[in-house]
Amino acid sequence: MLYEIQDVNRFANVGQFASYARLVACAKESAGKKQGSGGRKIGNAHLKWAFSEAAALMIRSNPEAKAFMEKMTRQRGKARAVALVAAKIGRAVYWMMKRKRPFDARKLWKSSLPKGVRTMEEAAMKG
After folding, report:
1. 92 near 103, Cβ under 8 Å?
2. % of residues, the chain, pLDDT over 90
3. Spatial CA neighbour of 108 closest among 99, 122, 127, 95
4. DSSP designation for 2
5. Domain residue spans of the chain
6. Helix, strand, or coil here: 31?
């Protein structure tokens, strides 16, 4: 991953990094009108693969990721759910490299929880 990313500071924001890593959909739009697909092959295919593999492993081994995956699968379908987990991991990697801090799983899943809930287990019990 480090070889493909090189220097994370070359990306002005997390959105540019996600776009480079093929973690967001390309949109070709002007004046509110969609004009084709915008090209699905723009970005780094190796990073897309690496983040997708990391998402698959995380879903298998992490209960929070599994719960998020099940919720998103019900709402959006399995393929889109895996892509959302990969995008979350991609954003986490960007901020880890930018801030030079270790990975914190609590921060990764905190944004996915309803207000007032601290863990995925609490969310499962309430929902």
Report:
1. yes
2. 53
3. 95
4. H
5. 2-126
6. coil
The number of angstroms, rounded, from the C-alpha of 57 to the middle of its chain's C-alpha atoms is 14
Return the amino acid letter for 108. Answer: L
Give the pLDDT score at 117.
Answer: 60
Backbone angles phi and psi of 30, in degrees to 5: -145, 130
Q: Give helix then strand counts, H and E, for the chain.
A: 7, 2
- pTM, entire model: 0.79
Position 57 pLDDT exceeds 90: yes
Tens of pLDDT along 63-90?
889 989 999 999 999 999 999 999 999 9
CA angle 42, 10, 5 (to 5 degrees): 60
Alpha carbons 35 and 29: distance in angstroms, whole number = 6
Distance between CA atoms of residues 79 and 118, nearest Å: 27
